[in-house]
Amino acid sequence: VTVLFHLGEMATATESLDESTFEVLGAEIGYKIEVVSPEDEDKELLESFGLNLEQEELDEDDDDLEIRPPVVTVMGHVDHGKTRLLDAIRNTTVIEGEAGGITQHIGAYQIWTEHEGHDRAITFIDTPGHEAFTAMRARGADVTDIAILVVAADDGIMPQTVEALNHAQAANVPIVVAVNKVDKPEANPAKVRQQLTEYGLVAEEYGGEVMFVDVSARQGTGIQDLLDAVLLTADAGLDLRANPNKEARGIAIEAKLDKGRGSVATVLVQGGTLRVGDPIVAGTAYGRVRAMIDEHGERVEEAAPSRPVQVQGLNSVPRAGDLFLVPEDDRTARQIAEKREAVERNAALAKARKRMSLEDFTKA
Ligand code: GTP
Ligand code: MG
């Protein structure tokens, strides 16, 4: 506090300071300050087990990389038709099973479509609003390759439309706009295009680069055009490849505790191939892949890059956005999980201590 005071900074002992102030303070008293984020800390933790995922990716031989399906997140304002649209895409009726028609969880599934004479897969993630997307991004997990921004043509741009597109733009994720509910008499798809130009999303037909597709999730029109737009966007500028021939890595999309099956986690494989029997660690959860189930409820033996599957066999429930990986053996999986738990415990303790000293301080 004294040093800071002399530097012209008024602060109390329990106050939070920004990084640059810390650096100046450190220099003043003869220390070089290194700010370590939780992500960096976890990287170091994994490195102590000989795991350096970034380096591994850099070292990847071009010949080992194979085309993988794009991972698409559907975002947009409440009630603009995200779930219904995914329904139309899958030709199923998930919406009827949802309590009150509001999305309760993140679904993730893969569909197949014919595009320019080839069968192509697309992985979809149905986020409840954009929260999961934000949570995952905040933890450094960019799972999405392409965002479909759903805008109801009767409502037009709404607050969460803007939030969603801001998130996609901040993450550098290309956007395809699905102008939905065009079956409604009051629909005004031209207005949606016009409104979005203000946010830098200029439609191709207006001389821009963003694909806008008019759809009716209710009537099932425009769906094939939308899928084509997604694949065209994927093929135009995205290098979507991964090495399927190594231990799997990826992201936990959602997880829950199931009465009969224990911890079930929907994971998205980003690299490698996940197999039944693999040791696995996801955040502070660890175990062995006991069974894997796909979007149709069928058991699968393995999951390649961009494949979402439900995994059973973890000892606890990972959080959305937790990285998962397949280490050498069960023991390593457990040790990584336990070390992470210790890190979290320490952080929680430090926080509690800080709160207590603040209370003492205010009492005194
Ligand atoms: P949240 O998950 O709550 O954010 O909503 P959502 O964006 O998933 O919307 P949802 O698919 O639940 O659709 C909201 C309402 O709009 C439902 O009543 C749908 O039946 C209706 N709806 C969706 N698409 C269309 C469409 O193309 N045309 C018309 N007329 N109604 C639609
Ligand atoms: Mg929904």
TrEMBL record:
<feature type="binding site">
    <location>
        <begin position="76"/>
        <end position="83"/>
    </location>
    <ligand>
        <name>GTP</name>
    </ligand>
</feature>
<protein>
    <recommendedName>
        <fullName>Translation initiation factor IF-2</fullName>
    </recommendedName>
</protein>
<feature type="binding site">
    <location>
        <begin position="180"/>
        <end position="183"/>
    </location>
    <ligand>
        <name>GTP</name>
    </ligand>
</feature>
<feature type="domain" description="Tr-type G">
    <location>
        <begin position="67"/>
        <end position="241"/>
    </location>
</feature>
<feature type="binding site">
    <location>
        <begin position="126"/>
        <end position="130"/>
    </location>
    <ligand>
        <name>GTP</name>
    </ligand>
</feature>
<comment type="function">
    <text>One of the essential components for the initiation of protein synthesis. Protects formylmethionyl-tRNA from spontaneous hydrolysis and promotes its binding to the 30S ribosomal subunits. Also involved in the hydrolysis of GTP during the formation of the 70S ribosomal complex.</text>
</comment>
<comment type="similarity">
    <text>Belongs to the TRAFAC class translation factor GTPase superfamily. Classic translation factor GTPase family. IF-2 subfamily.</text>
</comment>
